[in-house]
């Protein structure tokens, strides 16, 4: 894709819409010509090929209506989806949570047709989160352009979306940022990927469930960090173990691609400041014996994903701006 700066030019052709389609909910935002969020909405996700397209069209129409922007003035739409995405073709397949099988769903083409020919871009959900985080960093800190950033998703699994020099880095086979499957303990437990001791077994949201099974039905990370804050020694030990694992993921990202920012996202990041403090403390402790690590200021590179707007949907809208009028011009 184009650079973040190119995808959000100073003189934008007009508003764009971004969708972050998850297994249960779809988040939508409308960006105005200056790249500011003017409206956002949340809808239940519809599944299956027809349901995904219908639900996406409904989400675009709804957020445009909320912003008071006629549909024909939308200049681009971006969609972030799970599964295997061919961004150049605008297709997605093997999105199990959306009931999409191995047959490519031509999401860009079908959604564009539903919306009157507006250009539509489709991207992996983790990648749009990275683009969204980069867009928000650039908006808040203009001197950061072009942005070097990794969006570290602490969810059921563990992976990162990477933006280098303002460009989304997918990798030659789309596997860039799959750090969750870097083995850190060859003698560790088996991973679903077929290896042993992979990082996601220790640093994902699922790892928290294993460390501290919930007893009240609330999210395990919430129970763990509350118990640790209350002084439970077992909880403190478990929290610190988890924080060290996340710190290892941060260190891996910095030492491989030297990103300026590592943004913590995903379900566990909803813990907020307590999680950030724990990870920064772990990075500080690990740097104490290494002048090299101290020189990299690892704790200072970590931040939380902004909570005021859905980062993935914002990134999808940025992707949509890169597709502005592409289909409409060709069919005019």
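-> sequence recovered:
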């Amino acid at each position: 894709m184009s650079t973040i700066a190119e995808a959000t030019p100073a003189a934008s052709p007009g508003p764009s819409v971004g969708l972050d389609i998850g297994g249960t909910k779809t988040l939508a935002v409308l960006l105005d010509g200056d790249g500011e969020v003017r409206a956002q909405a949340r809808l239940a996700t519809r599944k299956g090929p027809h349901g995904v397209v219908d639900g996406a069209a409904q989400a675009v129409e709804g957020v445009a209506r909320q912003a008071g922007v006629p549909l024909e003035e939308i200049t681009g739409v971006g969609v972030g989806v799970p599964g295997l995405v061919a961004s150049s073709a605008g297709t997605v397949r093997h999105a199990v949570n959306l009931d999409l099988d191995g047959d490519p769903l031509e999401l860009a083409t079908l959604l564009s047709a539903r919306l009157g020919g507006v250009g539509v871009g489709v991207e992996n959900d983790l990648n749009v989160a990275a683009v969204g985080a980069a867009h928000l960093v650039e908006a808040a800190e203009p001197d950061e352009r072009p942005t070097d950033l990794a969006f570290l998703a602490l969810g059921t699994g563990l992976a990162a979306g990477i933006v280098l020099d303002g460009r989304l880095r997918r990798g030659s086979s789309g596997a860039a940022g799959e750090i969750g499957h870097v083995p850190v303990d060859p003698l560790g437990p088996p991973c679903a990927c077929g290896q042993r001791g992979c990082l996601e077994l220790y640093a994902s949201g699922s790892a928290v469930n294993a460390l501290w099974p919930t007893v009240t039905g609330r999210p395990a990370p919430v129970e763990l960090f509350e118990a640790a804050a209350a002084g439970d020694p077992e909880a403190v030990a478990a929290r610190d173990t988890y924080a060290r694992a996340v710190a290892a993921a941060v260190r891996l990202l910095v030492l491989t691609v030297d990103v300026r920012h590592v943004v913590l996202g995903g379900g566990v990041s909803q813990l907020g400041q307590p999680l950030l403090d724990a990870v920064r403390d772990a990075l500080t402790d690990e740097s104490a014996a290494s002048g090299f690590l101290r020189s990299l200021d690892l704790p200072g590179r970590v931040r939380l994903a902004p909570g005021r707007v859905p980062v993935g949907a914002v990134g999808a809208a940025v992707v949509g701006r890169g597709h502005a009028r592409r289909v409409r011009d060709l069919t005019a």
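The longest helix spans residues 233-257.
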